[in-house]
Write a structure and sequence with these properties.
elongated; single chain; 11 helices; binds magnesium ion; 313 residues; 58% helix; Rossmann fold; 15% strand; alpha/beta; binds adenosine-5'-triphosphate
Length: 313
């Protein structure tokens, strides 16, 4: 069974509900579990009716949680870059670079890169400490962009390392009359910063493609749009060799509908359930009922107990 599980899906389908309940189920069966939320709306705090912040804290027996704040991580990420740069370039250039960093920190890509960095840091540092690490993600598009980052960052860092090696070689030619040795290249501060980032990206890629370690569960409702969006998402993830292990169809209506409106709703739901079975026939499909009330701390256990029947591993 995978130790790192991402819950993905279209907005509002029940990702936070399912990931929180699933984490609670794992904790109840005695596995040390960490629930990580990347949702800026802080829904995990709402569901457990407890403040969860950006350092890991204990919620319930065997269950720890953390909420990553993209904006805050983005600021920290940029500050780190500022500090690294200060060590290697002149003060005049630092000022120019700082302006560019400030401009970059409000661009949308930066928050994603920072979030991704933090997620990878948690995985690398905590994978041996916890039996399960469960991620509640933001709606599909955002998560997919996040997962395609290693590919982009990897290629970008490779180019930067090559460029920097070239200029170190040129400097060495000018000063010493020969190319820089491997040792000289290793000693270069810029190359070593870039290499450290590159190694981290490679480690992230390796983890994401390890289907014994990491998998995705998509949450959908028995409706057209969540199904279509999930088909597209699965195609993209499988292109990146990320494993998708299951589909949860959330908010299934009760069987004994009386009213004409709800009877026809139920018929429509059955039609979509058949489509879901056909479309995702090579995945495990779980169903969860629509509960009378919204998910809160007092009824999250109901769904957690249902997972005990649904999932056997
Ligand atoms: N099975 C269910 N029965 C009753 N209410 C549910 C169920 N699943 C989810 N809900 C309710 O639906 C709403 C949306 O659920 P949730 O927050 O889990 O979705 P989400 O996919 O995480 O949304 P977002 O994309 O905004 O992060 C919440 O109010 C939640 O309490
Ligand atoms: Mg959510």
């Amino acid at each position: 069974m995978n130790r790192i599980i991402f819950f993905g899906g279209k907005g509002g389908v029940g990702k936070t509900t399912c990931s929180a309940s699933y984490a609670l189920y794992q904790a109840k069966r005695g596995l040390k579990t960490l629930l990580v939320s990347t949702d800026p709306a802080h829904s995990t705090s709402d569901i457990f009716e407890r403040k969860i912040n950006d350092t890991i804290s204990n919620l319930l027996p065997n269950l720890d949680a953390i909420e990553i704040d993209g904006e805050k991580e983005s600021k920290k990420y940029m500050d780190d870059i500022r500090v690294s740069l200060k060590q290697i370039v002149s003060p005049i250039i630092v000022e120019q670079i700082n302006k560019q960093i400030d401009a970059a920190s409000i661009s949308p890509g930066t928050e994603e890169a920072a979030l991704f960095d933090k997620m990878i840091e948690i995985i690398i540092e905590k994978v041996d400490e916890y039996d399960r690490i469960i991620f509640d993600t933001a709606p599909t598009g955002h998560t997919l962009r996040l997962l395609s980052l290693p590919e982009l960052l990897g290629a970008w860092l490779e180019t930067l390392i090559q460029k920097r090696s070239k200029s170190v070689n040129l400097m060495s030619m000018a000063l010493k009359g020969h190319k820089a040795s491997d040792k000289d290249l290793e000693k270069d501060e810029v190359i070593s910063i870039l290499k450290r980032r590159y190694d981290k990206v490679l480690a992230a890629k390796k983890i994401m493609m390890d289907d014994h370690l990491l998998s995705f569960i998509f949450v959908i409702n028995a409706e057209k749009l969540p199904i279509d969006e999930t088909v597209k998402a699965i195609n993209i993830l499988e292109k990146y060799n990320v494993m998708v292990s299951g589909i949860i169809v959330n908010r299934i209506l009760p069987d004994n509908m009386q009213d004409e409106f709800w009877i026809s709703k139920k018929i429509e739901e059955q039609k979509y359930l058949n489509i879901i079975k056909e479309t995702f026939k090579n995945k495990k499909i779980y169903t969860l009922p629509l509960l009378k009330e919204d998910m809160k701390a007092n009824n999250i256990g109901i769904i957690a107990d249902m997972f005990a029947d649904l999932v056997k591993s």
